[in-house]
Amino acid sequence: MKRLKGLLRVGTKAPSRADRRGGDQRTGSDVASSVLRSPSDPDPPNSTTSNPSSPLVDGIKVWYDCPDATIDICFVHGLTGNLDSTWTASKQSTPWPTVLLPLRLPRARLLTWGYDAYVVQASVTSKNRLTDHALNLLIDLTHDRAFCNASSRPLIFVAHSLGGLVCKEAILSSRNNPEPHLRDVFEYTTGIMFMGTPHRGAWMADWMKIPASGLGVFKSTNKSLLQVLETDDQLLESIQVRFWSMVREQRESGRRLEITCFFEELPLPGVGRVVSKVSATLEGYTPVSVHANHRDMVKFGTENDSGFKRLVGDLMRWQVETRSTTSA
Asked: Which residues, at least 6 apart from 282, have a Cβ–Cβ distance to it below 8 Å?
C-alpha cells in the first residue's frame, strides 16, 4: 500500500531504486500514468489501440478465419488491456497470434474479445462488474459461433490477467444456464491458457484504496474490477470454489478440461511482480514461467521466444487430443 501511495502522490519521485540510481526525475503523476497503463498495455498514449480516450473496440473480432476450422481459439485481455494491442509485441504492427499461429495451427479459427477493462480514466469508465463482462463474453461468443455454424466446435481460451477470471465466470455462467443456447460454451470448452491470472488476487487491488483525488488527472474510476482482485474478496473466492468444483465433476465424469497456468518471471519496472507465482498457478497443474514481466508475458516477438514455444506446444497438443476425442 505504501509503495502505491508513493507512486500516486503528485509531485514526488518514483521510489524505484533503479530510478534513483539513474537520476530519474519523473513525478508521481508521471509514474501513476505509466503504472495505470502498464499492467496489460505498454503502448504509448498516442496509440489509438491503447489510449483510454480513444473509442472502445469491444466484442468479438475475428483475427484469422478458416473455412475448414476444427477448433476456435479465443483471446481475452486483462485489466486496462485492448483486444489487439495487448497481444502485439513492441515494434510490431499486428498481434502475434495472427502471424505466428496460422503456421502451426492452420485449422484453428482465431478470435479476440474486447471489453472496457479500464479502472481509471479522464472521461468516464464503465461500471460493469466482472460478472457483467463474463456474461457479455458468453453472449458475444455464443452469437459469433452460431452465426458461423460453429456452436459445437471445440473451444480454447487464452486469457491474460483479469481476463482469466472473466473466462472462468463465463464458463460457469454457461453451465446449467436457463437459456439452452448459452450452454454450448461450457459444453465445448476443451482448454484454458491462464496467462498471469490472479486466481488468488493481486497487489493491484490496493489501487481501490487510493482516493479519487490521489489519482491526479483521472476523474472516473471503476473500483469493482479492482476489488475482486483482493485476496479476501468473496467473489474471487466464489469463482475459485465453483470453478474447482466444476473441474472435479467433469474429471469424474470422464471429461478432462485442459489447463495451463503461466506466471511472470520478471518484475514490472517501478512496480514489481503484479501477480505472484502462487496466485497465478492452480494446484494439480504444472506451473509454466515466461521470462517477462506481467505486461510483456503475452507479447511474443518471434516464434523463437521460449514463452511462445511453451504456449503453442500445449495448443498443438490440445488440438490433436481434441481431434482424437471427437473422432472416437
From this structure: 194, 199, 259, 261
Given a contact cutoff of 8 angstroms between Cβ atoms, the answer to whether 225 and 129 are in contact is yes
Cell numbers placing 317: 497438443
Q: Which three cell numbers stand for residue 310?
A: 511453451
Q: In what order do the strands lie in the sheet with 59-64?
A: 59-64, 108-114, 71-76, 155-160, 189-195, 258-264, 287-290
- Residue 67: count other Cβ atoms within 10 Å of its Cβ: 7
Nearest Cα to 168, choosing from 137, 205, 129, 203? 137
Neighbours of 131 (CB within 10 A): 17
pLDDT in 10s for each residue of the chain, 328 residues: 444 444 333 333 333 434 433 333 333 334 334 444 444 444 433 333 344 445 567 899 999 999 899 999 999 999 888 999 999 999 999 999 999 999 999 999 999 999 987 654 444 445 568 889 999 999 999 999 999 999 999 999 999 999 999 999 999 999 989 999 999 999 999 999 999 999 987 665 554 444 444 434 333 445 555 566 565 567 788 888 999 999 999 989 999 899 999 999 999 888 788 899 999 999 889 999 999 999 999 999 999 999 999 999 999 999 998 876 665 5
Q: Which of 260, 257, 266, 294 is nearest to 86 (CA)?
A: 294
The set of cell numbers assigned to 156 is 480454447
Sequence letter at residue 232: D
**Do the beta carbons of residue 57 and residue 83 sit within 8 Å?**
yes
State the pTM of this model: 0.79
Q: What DSSP assignment string belongs to 151-220?
A: TTS-EEEEEETHHHHHHHHHHHHHTT-SSGGGGHHHHHEEEEEEES--TT--GGGGGGGS-GGGGTT--E
How many CB atoms lie under 10 A from the CB of residue 79?
A: 25
141: cell is 461468443
- Parallel, antiparallel or unpaired: strands 220-221 and 120-121: antiparallel
